[in-house]
Amino acid sequence: MTSILKPLASGKFWKELLIMTLGMSFGAAAVYYFLMPSKLIIGSISGLSIVLSEVFAGFGIAIKTSTIIVIINALLLVLAWLLIGAEFGLKTVYTALILGPLIDFWEFVLPYEKLLGGGTSVMNDPWLDLICFVLMLSISQAILFHINASTGGLDILAKIVNKYLHFDIGTSVTVAGALICCSAFAINPFRMVVIGLIGTWINGIAVDYFTDTLNKRKRVCIITDDYEPIRQYILNTLIRGCSLYPLKGGFSLEDKVELVTLLTQDEYARLFNYLKDKDFKCFITVGNVSEVYGTWNTKRGIQNNQKIN
């Protein structure tokens, strides 16, 4: 029990809890304002919950979509614990169970009925509802992925499918999402089901885009005879590491050194301005890196007044 509660004492946990709450609030707003009024079913637990809510209503049983979301996510968490083990930590438990209450929160703050204006949905067009939903949910998911969290739900189901049917995670998510979209035949015409399938596909592309944007770094490669001042600037001013690679010029056959470093966009701009102001004679190539693992991603742990040689 002590090991489970230990993270609660860290400031990092509470900071990430706030980020997860904001991210899930954004996602809950997307579901409440753009899926529920139009009954547009995207491959997610929220989509499945909308279908089940409508099916139950057809039998005279009124169960709110938010309640079904909580029930399904709770069942999936129990299944994950039994079938997979304790691989889903506090983040997944929290995000999986908070979505339903957050949908109720938006219903309390501003019921979507006030935004319909006599139409059948907020945007009064399923394609516009789809675009708004995908943009909002993708940003929400990208924020969560950035702190190694997820929205739970479909991710848990995909993990179970991955373990027992041996599909990779991407395929598992796609298969589970497609099956949920097809469940919309119970409440929607064929056209709306197709829109939902397209929306599921677009959502995957959008999540990748926003995630890459959040994680993007610049890989800067500099070839110059006077690399030492640049190395010192990167280490002592930008507080970043760098690597030095010996090479031989293909034209001059002279021995050179290539300096390589990974920087944020802001750090890259500062380095570029430094090189320009000092008028270094150098050859520079710059590329985008979408993921960085290892000690680079941790807190730098070096105070600005410390010098590194």
Overview of the structural elements:
- The protein has a four-stranded antiparallel β-sheet with strand order 2-3-1-4.
- Helices cover 59% and strands 10% of the residues.
- A hairpin with a 6-residue loop joins strand 2 (243-248) and strand 3 (255-263).
- The chain is of the alpha+beta class and 309 residues long.
- The chain is elongated.
- Mean pLDDT is 82; it is low at 301-309.
- The protein has two domains: 12-214, no CATH class; 217-297, 2-Layer Sandwich (Alpha-Beta Plaits), CATH 3.30.70.
- It is built from twelve helices and four strands.
Largest sheet: 4 strands, antiparallel
Structure class: alpha+beta
Q: Beta fraction of the residues?
A: 5-15%
- Placed side by side, the strands forming the largest sheet appear as 2-3-1-4
**Strand element count:** 4
State mean pLDDT (0 to 100 scale): 82
Question: What is the radius of gyration computed over CA atoms, rounded to a whole number of angstroms?
Answer: 25 Å
> How do the helices and strands follow one another from N- to C-terminus?
HHHHHHHHHHEHEEHE
Termini Cα gap:
44 Å
Q: How would you describe the shape?
A: elongated
Count of DSSP helices?
Answer: 12
Task: Indicate how many domains the architecture comprises.
Answer: 2
The residue ranges in which pLDDT falls below 50 over 5 or more consecutive positions are 301-309
Helicity, in percent?
A: 55-70%
